[in-house]
Specification:
This protein has four helices and no strands. The protein is mostly helical and about 170 residues long. It is found in: Cell membrane.
């Protein structure tokens, strides 16, 4: 009787293991599909922003040729649009690394926040918004800079610890 129970238990464990393997395989493939979708989405958004950049550039050229509008405001808007491509490029690189199975740095997200805040400062300056709002953006930039320094320091410590473990092993 014990042999039969042991046999049934082993069969049950084997079946559950097969289900686990199939489920894990499905989830890994689904995760890969999500990352591929995100990569395509980032490319589409990047192309749209590039077209927006070209539109703003043409507007700046028209303003320069016609001497009609505030050229500095157009130039700041153009730079603000261009600055959006920087984090999108980083996000696309991160998606490529994730699809390859590599790790990504937290700096990517801090850099994205910094780029967005810089763009907000440029746009608020170009549109002549209150200085109070600009000060909030500057404070946010300082906080993001401190966070970025902490992340860089932490990642360097982690990297040196890993290298120490490899060298000592």
């Amino acid at each position: 009787m014990r042999k039969k129970i042991k046999y049934l238990r082993n069969k049950l464990v084997e079946k559950i293991s097969n289900i686990d393997t199939a489920l894990i395989g499905f989830l890994e493939n689904f995760d890969r599909l999500i990352h591929l979708f995100l990569a395509v989405l980032i490319v589409v958004v990047s192309l749209a922003i590039f077209i927006w950049f070209v539109h703003d550039f043409i507007g700046l050229i028209k303003n320069v040729v016609e001497f009609k509008r505030n050229i500095s405001g157009s130039a700041l808007r153009l730079f603000g649009t261009a600055i959006l491509l920087w984090p999108l490029s980083s996000l696309l690189r991160a998606e490529i690394n994730l699809i390859k199975g590599e790790k990504i740095s937290l700096n990517l997200f801090v850099d994205t926040a910094i780029a967005g805040t810089i763009r907000s400062v440029l746009i608020s300056t170009a549109e002549g918004e209150e200085l109070k709002e600009t000060y909030y953006y500057i404070i946010a930039l300082l906080v993001f800079a401190v966070v970025r320094l902490i992340v860089v320091y932490t990642e360097k410590l982690e990297k040196s610890q890993k290298e120490g473990e490899k060298g000592g092993a």
